[in-house]
Amino acid sequence: MKMNFSDAMIFSDAINVHMDWFAKFQAAIEQGGSPQLDVETIGLDNVCALGKWLYSEFEGYSDRESYLQLQFNHASFHQEASKIARLINENNPDAARSMLSSSGAFFRASRRVIMSIDQCCKEFSAAIPEQLGAQ
Q1: Would the pLDDT of 69 be above 50?
Q2: Vertex 85, ends 13 and 117: CA angle to 5°?
Q3: What's the average model confidence in pLDDT over 12-27?
Q4: Domains and CATH numbers, the chain
Q5: Is the CA virtual torsion 122, 128, 130, 135 positive or negative?
Q6: What number of other Cβ atoms are within 10 A of residue 59's Cβ?
Q7: Is the pLDDT at 3 greater than 80, yes or no?
Q8: Whole-angstrom distance between the N-terminal and C-terminal Cα of the chain?
Q9: Cβ atoms of 28 and 84 closer than 8 Å
Q10: Cα–Cα distance for residue pair 75/29, rounded to 1 Å
Q11: Which of 26, 44, 72, 106 is most deeply packed, by most CB within 10 A?
Q12: pLDDT interval class at 56 (50, 70, 90)
């Protein structure tokens, strides 16, 4: 199975969307946790576009180590995100900021997701240059 151009765009968008969580959390901290963040939904790894794709269309790659690593890292990202959301909702901005820092668990989880996405793109993107040339 080869990744197509549409698949590659999902990966590209996923990096941007997941990186946007830093700004969303910073804004929520500045607003004092109001409105409350949906901790449960944030913690689900099959609700965002990448998660939906991983658990449906991308399952054809499920025998690949890079797919399994991405799925694991993506789930870990959402677990860490839900912890930050809970801290913000509990009005614990210092602990939330600590998790967002470059030495924090959320930052590390974000880096692992990005590296996993990049690895999958490299490994499965053989069809993309051909499709780009056809457009």
Answers
A1: yes
A2: 25
A3: 85
A4: 5-134 (1.20.120)
A5: negative
A6: 13
A7: no
A8: 21
A9: no
A10: 23
A11: 106
A12: confident
